[in-house]
Design brief:
The chain is mainly β. The protein folds into five domains: 57 residues, no CATH class; 170 residues, Immunoglobulins (Immunoglobulin-like, Sandwich), CATH 2.60.40.10; 34 residues, no CATH class; 90 residues, Immunoglobulins (Immunoglobulin-like); 62 residues, Dockerin domain (Type 1 dockerin domain, Orthogonal Bundle), CATH 1.10.1330.10. It contains four helices and 31 strands. The strands form eight sheets. A six-stranded mixed β-sheet has the order 9-6-5-22-16-19, with no helix packed on it. Strand 17 and strand 18 form a beta hairpin. The protein starts with a helix and ends with a helix.
């Protein structure tokens, strides 16, 4: 009897000791109750049975990286940023500010269902928030003229959670300009904003004079590109101004002397190796005599590869430039799609050697995006490469013979934007010469010209 009890004790001790790594199953039944949706906790172990297979999954994960020695898990925006930051434009008015912003583009299952506008009289907040719905513009009324206000926009998921926040932009409301009456034959007594100037002397004339018109408008652009890079601003498809970003990649530039009306502005960056970014485009209406601030621009990284064809199993270098010390997400388009992580250095340069072993023998492409502590860029242009049975180093690409409208030896969205501006419009003498050389040469922008650019597309 004593020996039997000893063996039973040993059995129970052994069962308790191995309870975590093993799970056993048996059939159970009852006429008094039913077990619905049972949960079996393996305790970090595994199943061992010829009659069943037990699978487990992860849930309620936090943003971060797992510390398990058995598997690696990376979760959240820190590793896979999938929603781009909105970019805001703020136009002041009389006791109000008109805001418009770019849509926050989601990926990997993230869908933006609405936005909140944050408002503060202090730079950096705290902000008071107002839900505005799933729109990309809002008017903020009830503001004090002469006071500077600061605004941000938050994008929300389907459950009302904040998934991305824009950069901050400011505006100072002011009173409406005085209105004069123009009795000229062309205006028929209609209202017209006035500007006052000192009258000219001579012949006993004098006194203050009145000149019609509300003054020209201007637009201020600010954001992040690449350290000491060239930043260009296109106005309706034509280069309007360039500037140089600082060592921290921040840039600020203005365009003045604008008449009231609708404009499409595009911003691009050119890195230290003359690689050009994809263009950030912002359509906006400009109000006469008012300065509009467009802030929080975060240009996509530049990207290139060191091989046009890579032997399967070898590595391909994916590299480019972004802001300093950014988290770079690299996407390699395949089935499935691969996401890799690296960081840019103090000069904004990043490099990742991708192992092509899991890729099929086919044409693939890659793109990248950058994330800082507060902003996430859109994806870059895509760059293609072939996975095959040999390796061919990438070479500098010759300039395309057609379609390069801005003279950068590339045919991409910048050129398409330029052509789109002139679509069904009378060409200026300067652009008519470009059209004759680079497109169909018929003196107009038509669908034929877009087909030419599509054929010579370089990205």
């Amino acid at each position: 009897m004593r020996l039997f009890l000893s063996r039973v004790a040993v059995f129970f001790c052994t069962a308790c000791f191995f309870a975590a790594p093993f799970a056993f199953a048996q059939e159970f039944s009852s006429g008094n109750y039913t077990v619905l949706d049972p949960v079996i906790d393996l305790g970090g172990g595994y199943s061992a049975s010829a009659n069943f297979q037990l699978q487990s999954s992860l849930g309620q994960v936090a943003i971060g990286q797992s510390s398990s020695s058995a598997f690696l898990g990376s979760f959240g925006f820190q590793y896979y940023p999938v929603v781009s930051s909105p970019v805001i434009a703020a136009t002041p008015g009389d006791g109000q500010v008109s805001l418009s912003w770019t849509a926050a583009n989601g990926a990997l299952g993230w869908n933006v269902s609405g936005y909140k506008v944050g408002q503060s009289a202090v730079s950096g907040g705290p902000y008071s928030f107002t839900s505005v719905g799933n729109v990309t513009s809002a008017i903020i009324p009830g503001l004090a003229n002469g006071t500077t206000y600061y605004f941000i926009v938050e994008a929300l998921d389907a459950y009302g959670n904040v998934i991305i926040t824009s950069g901050q932009v400011s505006a100072t409301p002011s009173g409406a300009p005085p209105v004069c009456t123009d009795h000229s034959a062309t205006n028929y007594g209609g209202p017209l904003p006035c500007t006052y100037s000192s009258g000219g002397g001579g012949g006993g004339g004098g006194g203050g004079g009145v000149s019609y018109g509300g003054g020209s408008a201007s637009v201020n652009f600010s954001g992040r590109a690449y350290p000491l890079s060239t930043v260009g601003i296109l106005k309706d498809g034509q280069l309007a101004v360039t500037t140089i970003a600082g060592p921290d990649a921040n840039f600020s530039v203005s365009i003045a002397g604008l008449a009231a009306g609708n404009y499409t502005f595009s911003v691009y960056g050119e890195d230290s190796q003359n690689r050009r970014s994809s263009a950030f485009t912002f359509p906006i209406y400009i109000t006469q005599g008012v300065t509009t601030n467009i802030g929080g621009i975060f240009l996509a990284p530049t990207i290139a590869v060191d091989k046009s064809e890579v032997k399967r199993g070898d590595t391909i270098a994916i590299f480019g430039q972004s802001v300093p010390d950014a988290a770079i997400t690299i996407s390699v388009h395949s089935t499935p799609e691969y996401f890799e992580q690296t960081e840019s250095d103090a000069n904004g340069v990043y490099l990742y050697d991708f192992d092509t072993s899991p890729l099929a023998l086919a044409l693939h492409s890659t793109k990248s995006k950058a994330a800082t502590s507060s902003l996430i860029s859109p994806f870059s242009d895509t760059v293609g490469f072939q996975v095959g049975d040999k390796t061919v180093l990438a070479s500098s690409q010759a300039c395309p013979t057609k379609g390069d409208l801005n003279g950068d030896c590339r045919v991409n969205l910048v050129d398409f934007s330029i052509a789109a501006y002139w679509y069904h419009r009378a060409l200026s003498p300067t652009f008519a010469a470009v059209e004759k050389k680079e497109l169909s040469g018929d003196g107009a922008i038509t669908l034929t010209d877009f087909s030419i650019m599509a054929y010579y597309w370089t990205g």
